[in-house]
Every structure is written in C-alpha cells, then in structure tokens.
C-alpha cells in the first residue's frame, strides 16, 4: 500500500481502495494461504462483494422482518445474492482444503479448523462445525478487512482534520518509541498510550458496525421476559452503548483523554462498555487481528507522512454519522516528512 501511495507523489487520493485491497490480502493470507496482486481480477471481485456485504450487515438485515411468503422475492435482492456468492466461494475453498489436508502441516486457518472438526467429531457439544467455520470466515473478513479499512479511513480523515493536535501528538509518540527508520511493532503499543487512546476513541466515536455482527440463538430461551426462539437473529445495538451519555461524557465529541489517566497512561483494563467487536462468547473472533492491523497501519502512515486535507478542512467529520458513500468522497494528501 505504501508503494501505491508513493506513486501518486502527494496528489489527493481517496484511500479506501488501497486500504481494502491491502487489508483483505492480509486476511486471505491468514485464511487461505494466498495473496493476490493489487489489480488481480479475483482480488477486485472479492473486495467488491465484501464491501457490498459489509454495507448490508452494517445497516442491519431487513430480510429478518420479511414474511415467509416474500422470501422468494428477497432471494433476488443484490445483498442476498452477494452473501450466497461469498458463501459459495468459501465453501469451494473449504472443500479444496479438505481434499488436500495434511495432518502434519497447517497451511492456514482453514487447515487448523478442519483438524479441530475431525478431532471433535465424537463430541456432540463441540463448537467446531462446518457451518461455524463459514461464520468465522465471515467474521475474519468483515472485522479484519472491511472494518479495519473503514476504521482507518476515519482515522486518516481525523488526522487530516487535526494535524497540529491529534496527528502531531501521535507522531511524537512514534518518534520517541520507534524513531523514524524502524517500522512500528505491535509491542510498541505499551509505550504509546495516546495513540492507543485515539484508537479506542475512534472505535467509540465512529462505530463502524453499529449493530455488530448478527448472531443466531442456538436454542429456545427467555431473556428479560422476552421469548427468543431458536434460530432468531440477534443484533446487539453497539452504537447505542457507545453514544450513551450516562456512560460517556459528551459522546458526540472525539476525546481520547477519556481513556487516559491524569499521568497520561492508558486506563486498564479497557472499559467494559467499549464493545466495537461485540461481547460474550460469540464476540467477533477477528478482534485481535483487527486491533493489530489498525495499530500498525495507523502508526506506519503517521511515521512516514504528514496527512493533510485536499482543501482547507475535512467538512462534516463531526456529524453523527456519514454514509460510507460520502466518507469515500473525502480525499487527503500524503506528504513525505
């Protein structure tokens, strides 16, 4: 991605295509063991599908509220077809991995998961199942590519909007900890409290998945006097938690200091009501990977470049929510330090 940014020599760019291709390649390598060139047709096709699927999940699925007699109509909607196409592609990958599985070699995540399925076949309560594998792949790609890419877009626009405050303070931490030559490492986060506070605050301020990743009730259950039948889709209202004024002072304001102690250190543990990856046993399995990616991308960009807006200012950044199509219209310039 850095090479692509350098190629434009400081000209204004919309970063989303660069980010999504780079982050989805990381997930492809982890899950499939494959990377694709920037302009590879399969890479472009998958990125397009995942972007559309992410938008559908982000908005919440209207399919859940459609009466059964209209489901045939719903099956023809673009988002439904895209989900089916992505599932088919992943199913093909899984079958190919099953055909070539070597018990002595773990090529990627799918290999490791398939071995766990084989090991636990005799256990009726095992959580390692074929359909769960498909769900985990969805979580990895959504959290590790689309969510990371959109979150980083927000960070880049915010840095361009606040070059003399947020951006300069993050850069000072990077220079003090990693210098200007050594690439930042994940271990550096423990010495960069302000940078981590900015990452946490962006999770809260611009909740990328306001209704989280939908889950399904595994059995009939009651919760708070509500009957929830088996198979019911559950969507946690993450946005409401992140914007609750009883939990956060001035929730509409970007304020990393809310995660810092008076001495400048990062508060620990992370507040329990900061839940960008949902909560509970079925919280997004891509959380750790996404956290590493966001930290490394953000610090690498700030270490190498001054990030400035195309014009005088980034307009509309403080609005409660900006549609992704509008977010993608904003351009910034990356100028070498």
TrEMBL record:
Transmembrane segments: none annotated. GO terms for molecular function: heme binding; iron ion binding; oxidoreductase activity, acting on paired donors, with incorporation or reduction of molecular oxygen, reduced flavin or flavoprotein as one donor, and incorporation of one atom of oxygen. The keyword Iron applies. PROSITE patterns: CYTOCHROME_P450. Keywords: Endoplasmic reticulum, Heme, Iron, Membrane, Metal-binding, Microsome, Monooxygenase, Oxidoreductase. It is a peripheral membrane protein. Pfam families: p450. It is found in: Endoplasmic reticulum membrane; Microsome membrane. Its cofactor is heme. Heme binds at residue 284. SUPFAM superfamilies: Cytochrome P450 (SSF48264). One of its GO terms (cellular component) is endoplasmic reticulum membrane. Belongs to the cytochrome P450 family. May be involved in the metabolism of insect hormones and in the breakdown of synthetic insecticides. PANTHER family: CYTOCHROME P450 508A4-RELATED, CYTOCHROME P450 FAMILY. This is Cytochrome P450. It comes from Rhipicephalus sanguineus (Brown dog tick).
């Amino acid at each position: 991605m850095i090479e692509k940014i350098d190629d434009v020599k400081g000209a204004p760019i919309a970063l989303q295509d660069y980010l999504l291709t780079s982050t989805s390649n990381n997930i492809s390598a982890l899950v499939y063991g494959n990377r694709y060139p920037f302009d590879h047709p399969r890479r472009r096709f998958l990125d397009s599908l995942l972007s559309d699927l992410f938008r559908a999940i982000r908005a919440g699925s209207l399919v859940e509220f459609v009466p059964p007699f209209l489901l045939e109509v719903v099956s023809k909607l673009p988002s439904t077809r895209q989900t089916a196409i992505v599932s088919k592609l992943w199913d093909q990958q899984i079958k190919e991995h099953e055909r070539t599985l070597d018990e002595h070699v773990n090529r990627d995540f799918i290999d490791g998961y398939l071995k766990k399925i084989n090991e636990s076949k005799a256990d009726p309560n095992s959580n390692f199942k074929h359909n769960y594998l498909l769900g985990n792949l969805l979580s990895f790609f959504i959290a590790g590519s689309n969510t990371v890419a959109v979150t980083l877009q927000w960070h880049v626009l915010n840095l361009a909007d606040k070059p003399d405050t947020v951006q300069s303070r993050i850069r000072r931490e990077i220079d003090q900890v990693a210098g200007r030559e050594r690439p930042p490492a994940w271990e550096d986060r423990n010495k960069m409290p302000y940078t981590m506070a900015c990452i946490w605050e962006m999770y809260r301020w611009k909740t990328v998945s306001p209704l989280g990743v939908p889950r399904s009730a595994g059995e009939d259950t009651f919760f708070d006097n509500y009957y929830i039948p088996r198979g019911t889709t559950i969507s946690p209202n993450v946005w409401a938690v992140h914007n609750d004024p009883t939990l956060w002072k001035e929730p509409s304001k970007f304020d990393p200091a809310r995660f810092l102690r008076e001495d400048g250190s990062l508060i620990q543990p992370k507040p329990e009501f900061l839940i960008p990856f949902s909560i509970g046993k079925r919280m997004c399995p891509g959380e750790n990977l996404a956290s590493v990616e966001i930290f490394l991308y953000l610090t690498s960009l700030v270490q190498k470049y001054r990030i400035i807006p195309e014009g005088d200012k980034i307009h509309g950044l403080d609005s409660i929510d900006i549609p992704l199509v509008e977010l993608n219209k904003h351009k910034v310039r990356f100028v070498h330090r």
